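Usage

Read records sequentially. Each one opens with the input sequence:
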Amino acid sequence: MEELNRFDRILAILIQLQSKKTVKAQELANRFEVSLRTIYRDIRSLTAAGIPIIGEAGLGYELVEGYKIPPMMFTKPEISSFVAAEKLAIKFIDKEMKDHFSSAIYKLKAIIRSSDKDWMETIDKNVVMRSISHNQLSKALPNTLTTLFQCIAQKNVLEISYQAAYQQEATIREIEPIGVFHESNHWYIYAFCLVRNDYRQFRTDRISNIKILDQLQFKKHPDLEQYLAERELEATFTRVVIHVDPLFAHYLHWERKYFGFKEESLKDGQVEMIFDVKNADMGFARWFMMFGDHADIISPYSLKENVKSILQLQLLRLK
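and closes with the structure output:
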């Protein structure tokens, strides 16, 4: 972020203190790209100005309960970001959460200066987010995310009916939800499964029933970020090299990042694309077949075999 002068930084620190229950000095130092010593000095300046801050270095800081600062005036770029956030949110969250989000946006609009309301309304009318191609949540459970967020905050045990990809029938699982993340166009729950006695991730659109139990979680779990980082380290990668017709290569740009794209270069009149495919399976082979008449597989040989097996199965079904 652009370097702030001291006055602006102190004001921004005050706003951040109001936005969270506890804020650590290191978090502030990282955000404003300054030293811890600078943050400690800024906190002392705020307390000297009469702002009731409690806490200490190493433990974090928070405002005394009930203290509020006057409403802030928003800049036009900030107002534009609210419109963008609303457009994206209504496509990725569940119905109940959309209703709450809309209510929050109306409150936000109420405190925007009259001169900026036209700005926001003009952008709102002329920015459209088209529907995504598939339902990211179970059709039978339109408010899955709302239930999950509530369960995570309250640390309850959750009962779900889950249809795993390798099973023909749904099974009942009791889980201790830890976090929710969005990946490859799907929402996932990371949780400790009491049935399997191990950590698992569950895709939300495969949940057909969900119920928050009165039972509270009994186990202390690693946080979601730690799990995702460890999963990335444990993943196996396969180096894939393909050559693509230069006139067609740009069509691959839209989705290639989901398949571990690393780099491209021009070789022998063809665009060479290199991927590190995570936990290689048939997914990359099926994606490659969408444009296979304009591309060649250089390596690995196993990818060629996967494409052949899919084609052979398809030919049998067409007979």
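Summary fields computed downstream for this record:
- The two ends are 60 Å apart (CA to CA).
- The chain is about 40% helix and 25% strand.
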